[in-house]
Design a protein that fits this description.
The chain has five helices and 14 strands. By secondary structure, the protein is of the alpha+beta class. The strands form three sheets. Strands 1, 4, 5, 7, 8 and 10 form a six-stranded mixed sheet that branches. It has a six-stranded antiparallel sheet with strand order 2-3-11-6-9-13. A two-stranded antiparallel sheet has the order 12-14. Helix 4 (146-161) runs antiparallel to helix 5. It is globular.
Length: 203
């Protein structure tokens, strides 16, 4: 059973890169954007055994895509204090927004692609479409998303291939992913100073 009272690891992947990954998993991933020289992208592909992860809080949005799960994987997960027992399968997507606590434990082996996205990169991608200050990426427990799964498989292939066009390909996929998150896993922030008729604001 996960212990949500444990100390939280604060991690900034922009500064720590693979060192931040090691703080969570106690080892380096199989392959990462840093190991292939993509300095401005943070993408990792790894095979994980059964493990219990420490409670973490990242400065970046973290997108987890389960790419190689031969059998359903029992998982316990806590996102921002909310607990859920999941049965993860290949193609599942997990979203941990920036500055949100996350803890998980799973009980069989599986592979995934993890993508860390700077909030400023999201803002730069969507600013021509919508005011980024009014958009909030929502946390998401494991859910099937075929489109994001295909992006995960393609990013895994690009990391492993690491050809001359792989980085440009990965950046294009990242832009498509951000727009997809905007369309399907975000909400408009409410103005904290907007009066709510008939109710008291929670704060």
């Amino acid at each position: 059973m996960l212990d949500n009272s444990s100390k939280t690891l604060q991690i900034d992947f922009t500064k720590e890169r693979e060192e931040g990954y090691k703080r969570v998993f106690n080892r380096s991933p199989l392959v990462s954007s840093q190991s292939v020289g993509w300095d401005n992208l943070t993408i990792v592909y790894d095979r994980q055994p059964a493990i219990e992860l420490p409670k973490t809080c990242l400065k970046q949005h973290c997108i987890g895509i389960l790419t190689d799960i031969p059998l359903p994987m029992q998982t316990e997960r806590i996102i921002d204090g909310r607990f859920l027992r999941e049965q993860n399968v290949q193609g599942d997507l997990i979203i941990i927004p920036a500055n949100t606590t996350h803890q998980a434990a799973w009980y069989s082996e599986g592979c995934s692609v993890a993508i860390m996205i700077e909030p400023r990169v999201v803002a730069q991608t969507i600013y021509e479409v919508v005011n980024p200050d009014k958009i909030e990426i929502l946390p998401q427990f494991a859910t099937a998303d075929p489109f994001v799964y295909q992006i995960g498989v393609a990013l895994k292939s690009a990391l492993i291939k690491n050809g001359s066009t792989s980085r440009l390909y990965a950046e294009t996929l990242m832009n498509a992913l951000i727009i997809h998150l905007l369309e399907n896993y975000s909400t408009t922030r409410k103005n904290s100073f907007e009066p709510i008729v008939g109710t008291l604001p929670q704060y």
